[in-house]
Amino acid sequence: MSSCQLSSQENLLPWISDNVLAIILPTVVYTVAGGFFYVLDQYELFNDYRIHPSEDELKRNHITRWECFKGVVRYHIIQITVGLLLNWNVGPQMVSDEACQIHETAKTLNHTRKIIPRSLNIIGIDAKKLSRAVAGTSSKIAYTIAGDYTTIDGRSSIDNGLLTLSKLCVTILTPILQLLLALIVVDTYFYFTHRLCHVNRTLYRIVHAQHHRIYVSYAWGAVYAHWLETLFLDILSFVLAGEIAQLSPRQSMVFGSAATIKTISDHCGYVFPWDPLRWLNRNGARYHDLHHQSWGLKYNFSTYTVFWDNFLGTAWADKEGAETRYQRVRDLTSKKPLEKEVTGNRGLEKIVAEGGTFKAE
After folding, report:
1. Distance, CA of 349 to CA of 278 (rounded, Å)
2. Which of 84, 135, 244, 280 would bridge with 142, disulfide CB 3.0–4.6 Å?
3. DSSP letter assigned to residue 16
4. pLDDT per position as a tens digit, 60-77
5. Which is more confident, 237 or 345?
6. Which pLDDT score is estimated for 341?
7. What's the pLDDT score for residue 336?
8. Three-state DSSP class for 283?
9. Of 35, 45, 43, 50, nearest to 271 (Cα)?
10. Phi, psi angle pair for 13, to nearest 5°
11. Angle at Cα 65 formed by Cα 64 and Cα 66, nearest 5°?
12. φ, ψ dihedrals at 56, nearest 5°
């Protein structure tokens, strides 16, 4: 157990606690990012990078933007309310002095050196004698071989190299590993619950179908969903990730904001060649847009990575087939009267899914 003395961490902003900021920051990020793409949509900027023609939104989606707006506002009210309730009477983050953390980590790492001499002893090599034998050549190698035993001069040593490694662990490696663990938890939880919502017809009809009323995705509608989905798919996944990975409020700010940007990007309806998220993996706007099509509902369940889709065979692999279906959608939609804005779209989607033709009335 660490012997470092704990003290409360000062808030990033003097007028709001880090706990509360971590709760509301994803909503702020969502509003800014969603607003950015709304401007692109309204002024038809970068239309060459759109997945669907702008008029397809009116012809194919089953909800108006106003209905979507109300659903998204409800989502964020639920998210903020649950977050505030979970953090009720929770004090500031307690942290120890960084120098003390580094020293404690160095001592822990120093103890792990026992592995080397014990392994040598198992195969019949005397670690103490070997360390003394190489001491004249390299004291660092001698200390490494000796492990946590009393070293050549009779004292235990924590050298500068170990302190440097400890600082790297405390300031960089450990926080990154925590964020990666949180990502694994969210990605895994969301994949299986999301897939369950498609496999179970009752869950799909009552809960998840609301999100799929949007066939032509746009950024602001990224979290448009039934309130049960908001609670048990989205919010619960992040609560579990935060607890399992032991994220601090500031780590939660980073993780929640990054996840929000990724969600917005997946639903934005644009595929930019300079999109940095596409450099990480192929789970981007086009990948998720395919899932929103009537013929892609049983594929591409993953949201953050493509691991589970690839591992369990639910990633759409027929690239040419997808392009053929997208072209069929464009051809059929172009024949559909614009007046049928929200009603009457289900017939078109069924025709597209079955590969038929649409006849304008």
Report:
1. 28
2. 135
3. B
4. 899 999 999 999 999 999
5. 237
6. 46
7. 67
8. coil
9. 50
10. -115, 135
11. 90
12. -65, -25
SS3 178: helix
The single residue listed with the structure tokens 């702008």 is: 54
Only one residue has tokens 């048990």, namely 232
Enter the tokens of residue 132: 């003394």
How distant, in Å, are the alpha carbons of 235, 287, 343, 349 from that of 213?
Answer: 21, 18, 11, 11
- The SS3 of residue 294 is coil
How far apart are the C-alpha atoms of 41 and 45, rounded to whole Å? 7
Q: What is the pLDDT of residue 155?
A: 47
- In b/e form, how buried is each residue of 104-125, taking b as 16+ CB within 10 angstroms? bbbbebbeebeebbeebeeeee
Distance of CA 235 to the CA centre of its chain: 12
Torsion of CA 289, 295, 299, 304, to 10 degrees: 10
The 10s digit of each residue's pLDDT in 296-336 is 999 999 999 999 999 999 999 888 888 898 888 888 877 76
Only one residue has tokens 């930019």, namely 272
To which residue do tokens 């035993």 refer?
A: 149
In order, the DSSP letters of 216-251 are S--GGGTT---HHHIIIIIIHHHHHHHHHHT--HHH
Taking CA 198 as the corner, what is the angle to CA 324 and CA 352, rounded to the nearest 5 degrees?
Answer: 25
Angle (CA) 234 238 242, round 5°:
175
Q: What is the CA radius of gyration of the chain?
A: 27
Sign of the CA dihedral with 278 first, then 280, 284, and 286 last: positive
Answer yes or no: is pLDDT of 349 > 60. Answer: no
Q: What is the reported pTM?
A: 0.83
Q: Which is it for the CA torsion 238, 240, 245, 246, positive or negative? A: positive
Q: Above pLDDT 90, what percent of the chain?
A: 53
Which amino acid is located at 29 in the chain? V
Give the C-alpha separation, 26 to 33, whole Å: 10
Q: What angle do CA 198, 200, 202 make, to 5 degrees?
A: 110
**Count of CB atoms situated within 10 Å of the CB of 157:** 17
Residue spans of alpha helices (H) in 169-296: 174-199, 201-206, 227-229, 236-245, 249-267, 276-280, 285-291
* Partners of 95 in the β-ladder: 7
Distance CA 147, CA 127 (A): 8
